[in-house]
Design brief:
Number of strands: 0
Helix content: over 70%
Number of helices: 16
Order of helices and strands: HHHHHHHHHHHHHHHH
Shape: globular
Strand content: under 5%
Distance between the termini: 85 Å
Structural class: mainly alpha
Oligomer: single chain
Radius of gyration: 23 Å
Amino acid sequence: MTVALAGVALFFCSVPSRHQLFKIGSMATNTLRLFFLGDGVQVTRPIVWIIGFFAFLNVYSVQAVLPMVMDDFHATALQAGLTVGATVLAVGLVSPFMGMLSDALGRKGVICTSLFALTVPTALIPLSHDLNMLIALRFLQGLAVPGIVVVLIAYLSEESRAGNLARMTSTYVGGTVMGGFCGRFITGHLGHLMGWRGAFVTLAIMNLAGAVLVWRALPASRHFVANRNISGALQTLLRHLRNQRLMAACAVGFCVLFSLVGTFTYVNLHLAKAPFNLTAAGLANVFTVYLVGVFVTPLAGRHIDRLGFMKSMLGALSISAAGLALTLAPSLWLVVTGLAVCSTGVFLCQSATISSIARNVNEGRSLATGIYYMSYYCGGAVGTWAAGLAYEGWGWDGSVVTIALAQMLAAALVAAVWMRPPPAN
């Protein structure tokens, strides 16, 4: 009895007081706040991930409801595909100029303004009365994206700690992958429940919330040096255009997004037909293959540094091509598996290319990133057009052949340029 009473007394004595519980909770809250929001000096990986997420939440969101848009506006496959192509074309056209603007004005202000600006056309999309208006608003969405993606890479190049750049860029790419997935997934499921217009209302609300969060949590630049010399910027542009590896990386980026956009735009139409007959919600579920890239890409950062650009790119392109071939199978599970493998290979290509540019360009980083993104997203626009023509002529088989040719061209460029030693500065 004495032992039992002593045990009960020890138990109650060891129970923390209300003050101690409050202190423990406060410490845990501060730890979580530092992890997610940082100390206001160094940007955290969660914030980098969130910026990538909201940058790409809207870019491909219409893909999951493309059959619904076709029915609503009585459009052909190629015409409906322009709702995707218009956005990526706008991103490509504005990217170099946004880089020059950021070099003059700074990083955080451009990133936050662009996030807020992205909300406006997204909120107007549900009011589209014809396909041309929808395409125009999608184009306006694309105009806001470079101020996020181009400037963030320059921000990370300047503000990341030594040895941490590859991990930061891989985290960013992981956020873009998750944003691309959620845009399609949310739009597809909400489109199935309330129509594609209601789905875009939800995206607009999410965009506004994300813009406020980044405005509050992203630290101001500490190492940015403004460059308002227009003639100097033009000279930097000319030096970039003479940089053989940078131009080759841009050409590879063109082929990479050509593959991704061409694949995920027209595979929806393929899967909406017999023998698959998927609904908008079913097509949204197919995009869960993007989650593979969410987990694989951030883990790949250290291996990209170890293997080098050429080996990483050739391996990633081989993975992507193998997955693309699987999508020709008549089985839904094989098609989904192929899409998972194909998209993961593309995300690895993107991560390797961004890391290479950030590491090898020592001046005008946002301008160099802007040139890359111009080529990258123009590749997506051309991929929408070329794969669409092939789809209308020969079905999904024609699109696959067209996309495979672009991947082969990318592999040839990597082998031709990176097998030679880099030129002396």
